[in-house]
Design brief:
306 residues; alpha/beta; 5-stranded parallel sheet; 4-stranded parallel sheet; Asp_carbamoyltransf_Asp/Orn-bd
Length: 306
């Protein structure tokens, strides 16, 4: 039995197979329509989510399975003080696979240690968000035709952004990757990721404050929102939330074949006027998220479709 706690739980070769499967699902939806008939996915979401929860549920429904679960800690026995380990032991009696989001880092890891079904980490605090990373990798590979030899700009909240942390960990395993880290001083990438991941793997990167300075050199621009829920006080959040706004004028500085990704939800960091630009790929990214989660469910349940 396998779980997914981090993008590094899959080797590069296994990731390629997973992404190949996701692309086959995209091209042949009907072939997979009953692959999980009789199987149940439990979505255990201790904090709010739209895309991650619904895309896991859509993925299982597209495979012919069914779903159950809760969408907030208040609507579960966690509000009565039940532990994560007891919850997963109980849910293991009801479902065949589980996706968990939790505000505390490491909670899905605790769950997988007590679970008798595969557990998918659907986001734990500011730590990891591996299924978003799989979505990002599939999106980049589908749009650019490769996952190596490119410059990735990461913009916004690089300190608390778990999507950024997971994506960096996944991409450093590919050749020719270079990062441009675009953030205010207060939201810089944590030192442990710079030293333990980038420096350790000899990955070239530069840190800049101005988005305009980075745009001309990018193959991918990965925008993130400043996350209100990660701040300890309102004043700091208000000061930071509009630090970056991607608009048409800034897009003029970017190469014609650069694509803009965003894990969503967005607040103000991408103007709606950018949505009509063919390089705006964040809603296509959402659709790719369903295909890659379908592929992940099949992989973790060890279901093969001829």
């Amino acid at each position: 039995m396998r779980h997914l706690m981090s993008p590094l739980d899959f080797s590069v070769e296994e990731l390629e197979k997973l992404l190949d499967l996701a692309q086959d699902i995209e091209a042949n939806r009907e072939k997979y329509a009953h692959a999980c008939a009789g199987k149940k996915l439990a979505t255990l979401f201790y904090e709010p989510s739209t895309r991650t929860r619904l895309s896991h549920e859509a993925a299982m429904l597209n495979l012919g399975g069914s779903v159950l679960g809760f969408s907030s800690a208040d609507s579960s026995s966690a509000s009565k003080g039940e532990s994560v380990s007891d919850t997963i032991r109980t849910v293991s009696c009801y479902a065949d696979i589980c996706a968990m989001r939790h505000p505390k880092e490491g909670a899905p890891m605790v769950a997988c240690q007590h679970s008798s079904i595969p557990v998918i980490n659907a986001g734990d605090g500011g730590h990891q968000h591996p299924t978003q990373t799989l979505t990002d990798l599939l999106t980049i590979r589908s749009l650019k035709g490769r996952l190596n030899n490119m410059t990735i700009g990461l913009c916004g909240d690089l300190k608390f952004g778990r999507t950024v942390h997971s994506l960096i960990n996944a991409l450093v395993r590919y050749e020719g990757i270079r990062f441009v880290l675009i953030s205010p001083e207060e939201l810089r990438l944590p030192e442990y990721i710079r030293h333990d991941v980038l420096d350790k793997n000899q990955i070239p990167y530069e840190e800049v404050v101005r988005l305009e300075d980075a745009m001309p050199s990018l193959d991918i621009l990965y925008m993130t929102r400043v996350q209100k829920e990660r701040f300890f006080n309102e004043e700091d959040y208000v000061r930071m939330k509009d630090f970056y706004i991607l608009d048409k004028e800034k897009m003029k500085l970017a190469p014609e074949d650069m694509y803009v990704l965003h894990p969503l939800p967005r607040v103000n960091e991408i103007s709606v006027e950018v949505d009509s630009d063919p390089r705006a790929a964040y809603f296509r990214q959402v659709q790719y998220g369903v295909y890659v989660r379908m592929a992940l469910i099949l992989t973790l349940l060890d279901i093969h479709v001829d």
